[in-house]
Design brief:
It contains nine helices and 13 strands. The protein has helices at about 15-20, 45-50, 65-75, 95-105, 120-135, 140-150, 190-205, 220-230, 245-255, and strands at about 5-10, 25, 30-35, 35, 55-60, 80-85, 110-115, 155, 175-180, 180-185, 210-215, 235-245, 260-265.
């Protein structure tokens, strides 16, 4: 196991399995429901049921103290350094909090503010941890995360989004997050039409790609299944995985959101 630990935050939507397998340290994004902070793990399905019932959800980025505690704990366990990988600094101060904590950390900490969000960050964190496990030096692993964050692409729909950074993607509009902003690619009348538009958009990119398809509430999973099936049938797709849009992201995109991330194979 490498003496360098990878850290990220819960908006990266990493699975418990990947966190345990790679030893990634995850700093939680605070979830506030109807003005009250939620303590501990929040069940995904319960969260979306509460949203559907009218509960208002907002998030709060981790403070420098939250990151400091993780870096200090890593040092106490014998880590020689850390790579802290987070979402685009143009839409969140999370990386800034990590940088503040890094300056006073007892071990060297490299903060990577990727150019992506959500599971795109998770892909970057996971890849960096795998690089370290394979014996690459910390600077190379951090550079891999930085470069991957600049090329991973995404497409999604967020009908009924509560607002925030995806408020422009109303209805079944197919949108993408790039260069720090959300941009609508096409306007669709239904989830099925949105799936067709997303497939077309994904497959017009590089000739060989890896894809991750995610969904929010269980009710929208069939549409995500259709998206995954259509993409998996393409010879351009070298591998496809699934992920769940958890509360740290779903608070912004809403329960009916689904979409895909992809990157060069």
């Amino acid at each position: 196991m490498s003496g360098i630990v990878v850290c990220t935050d819960s908006s990266a939507l990493l699975t418990d399995r990947d966190v345990a397998r790679l030893g990634i340290q995850v700093v939680p994004i605070a979830i506030v429901l109807n003005g009250e902070h939620v303590q501990g793990d929040l069940d995904v399905d319960d969260f979306y049921a509460r949203l559907s019932a009218g509960t208002k959800a907002v998030t709060s980025q981790p403070s420098p103290a939250n990151f400091a505690a993780v870096y200090e704990a890593a040092a106490e366990r014998g880590a020689q350094g850390a790579i802290s990988i987070h979402l685009d600094a143009r839409v969140s101060g999370t990386a800034g909090s990590a940088e503040s904590a890094a300056r006073a950390a007892p071990i060297p900490v490299t903060v990577v503010a990727t150019e992506t969000v959500s599971f795109g960050v998770g892909i970057c964190a996971r890849t960096a941890a795998e690089a370290l496990a394979a014996g690459l030096p910390p600077d190379a692993a951090a550079d891999i995360a930085r470069r991957l964050g600049s090329v991973v692409q995404n497409v999604f729909v967020a009908p009924g989004a509560p607002g925030g950074r995806v408020s422009d993607s109303a209805g079944w509009a197919v949108a993408t997050f790039a260069t720090g902003t959300t941009r609508v690619l096409s306007t669709c009348a239904s989830a099925a039409e949105a799936v067709e538009a997303m497939v077309e958009h994904v497959l017009r990119s590089s000739p060989q790609i890896r894809v991750a398809v995610g969904h929010a509430a269980a009710a929208i999973e069939p549409a995500a299944d259709d998206l995954a099936m259509a993409l998996a049938g393409s010879t351009a797709v070298r591998g496809l995985e699934r992920y769940r849009v958890g509360p740290p992201v779903g608070a912004h995109t809403g329960g009916s959101s689904f979409g895909a991330f992809w990157w060069p194979a």
